[in-house]
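worker-03 picked up job from queue 'complexes'. Input manifest follows; two sequence lines, order preserved.
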Amino acid sequence: MICLIALIAFGILGIFSVSYRKLALEAFDCVFRRITLRKCESGLDQRLKSQITGKLMVKSPKLASKIYKNFEVISWIFTILMIASTIYSGYGIYNFLVHGNCNGPDSNALCIFDPLKKEEPETCSVAFQKTAELEAPEIGDSPSLGSLNSKITIIEFGCYTCQYTREAQETVEKVLKEYKGTMRFVYKSFPLPNHESSKNVAIAAECAKLSGKFWLYNSLLFNKDIKTDDKSLISYAKEANINITQFEQCLNSQEAIENVDIEFNQGIASGIYGTPTFFINNISLVGPQSFEEFTKIIKKELRK
Amino acid sequence: MFSLNVEKIREDFSILNKTINNKPIIYMDSACVTLKPKQVVEKINQYYNEFPACAGRSTHKLGKKVTEEVEQSRKTIQKFINAKKQEEIIFTRNTTEGINLIANSLGLEGKKVLGTSKEHNSNLLPWLNGNMKYDIVKDKDNDFNFEEFNEKIKNTKLVAMRHTSNLDGTTIPAKEIIKIAHENQALVLLDAAQSIPHKEVDVKKLDVDFLAFSGHKMLGPSGTGILYGKYDLLENLKTFMLGGETVFDSNYDSFKLEKPPEKFEAGLQNYAGIIGLAEAARYLTKIGKDKIEKHEIKLNNMITEELNKIPEIDILGPNVPESRSGIISFNIKNTDPHNVASMLDASNNIMVRSGAHCVHSWFNANKLKGSARASLYIYNTEEEADIFVKAVKDLVKIVK
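worker-03 finished. Artifact:
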């Protein structure tokens, strides 16, 4: 049965190299003959057996002997494993196409087909590692969009200077558009301590909030190639029609700094170890996630 | 003083300095094709680099140089087998072509041809394919069966036998066979593909009528071979293949043939190969065939002695290494010979051949699938023989 594995392996290699095509044909002939209950005539199975055991012979004669004598059984085991993994892969592809996640509609596990999803989500990490379970914070005075009575509340902890927070913004905007009227969205600044200007930008956004222009300013910060010097931050404020005198005073005010610190400390208390981190009600999502991933959780929460 | 300086010889074979998977190559398939020393490769390159022209046709300087080199090569081969004159040497592509030339030119239709039970397909199929009466003499206890031969030689036109068998390395007593054949008015063709590279072959002493061998089994290039024939016989042979350089003159309705050997060498020849083949003959002559034979038998003795201790191993042919030249053809009980060869290659880069070795007739008659065959030559060392024995012992432990 090793020929079935050989057929797939050599078939794939044969796409790229002509030298494997003959082997793939031999493997096909061998498989075909076995299916029709005849003996493999190409001798490919025997060649593979002797090549494998020959190589092992030098390193571990005992193992080589065991493999040589039980080659057919081992071949069957590998063939069954291969068939099982092929079926499982097919199921994953089906799930991905239908549900947007290869693990099924209700799973939050890794899906390699998702181009944004990583095993360990990429985030702009803070200087410390994850120490506690993530827990959704109080909304407090943080800027929010949507009704207070919404069934879904999404809280984002983000940092304007973090590339992953910025990368996630497109999806966030898509989610806001798609679920407008059914959810509440809250943004909390989590200026990364290891990013030099992150706190300045967070304070500027806080000042925009105090001027009642947070969402416009927030949108400008995310949609531009951000510059973090005071002059640029003030120019964005001008663009958002914010009173510049008040804005400049606010940038140096204790109130704005304290408000930013409050949100940062909320983040620490919630177990944030990198940005962006989202809480969809009480379900956490770390790193930039796909629209499908948000959709899946939102739908699940809506069904409750 | 009288033994082979193997280490020095190995320096001439660049392939032996190479490794595969960080292990040296142990080449034991010389009965199929031998490795090539640098002297032969350089000689081939010399033709292409210095005088890549036609021989026997063009009168310019390069043409003359090739003609000179080719004729010098013919002379070298003449001396190599001690032929009476160089016109008795015909350049062919290989042993097979030489034998086919005789099969198609000697006028054997309806005549009896006698071989042995261990003929290579090259010395079997041409006789089966022609309209001839073919018969064989079977070995008796691994020895040539003179009793059967004396019976079957009557009314035989041609005795076409292998000199040394590629199957088990046994050599027939050619001189006695030829004497009896001649007494019975039969001609003798020897397939010397496996004897020429390994032992002294003197066509005058043997009094053989025709003798064919290949270059690729005697350190020479592939696609080269020699057919020797006694001149008077060659003169009377019909032509097998005609074309350029085989005729003096031609008209729309007739042609006048050249004399031997030209009348058998149709078309442009493999000049680089011919020159390389002659260089291989010079190389072997310099080493000395007697030393080569002794060296192979010494290694064969070492291997046979150890393999004989393993009950699962069956060596084909006589158990006396002296009778098997440098060939150890063997089977491991209940193990496919192809698996044996493949495992030796995968484990230790030991390159041997497996299968029927183009002697299907013998294996079919003996109800065997084939064998693994180690064939030794001048570049094989005692250390390699030890590694081979150890690998076979390990292999037996794995498969038994």
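worker-03 released lock.
The first strand of chain B starts at residue 19 and ends at 20.
Residues 296 and 377 of chain B are 6 Å apart (CA to CA).
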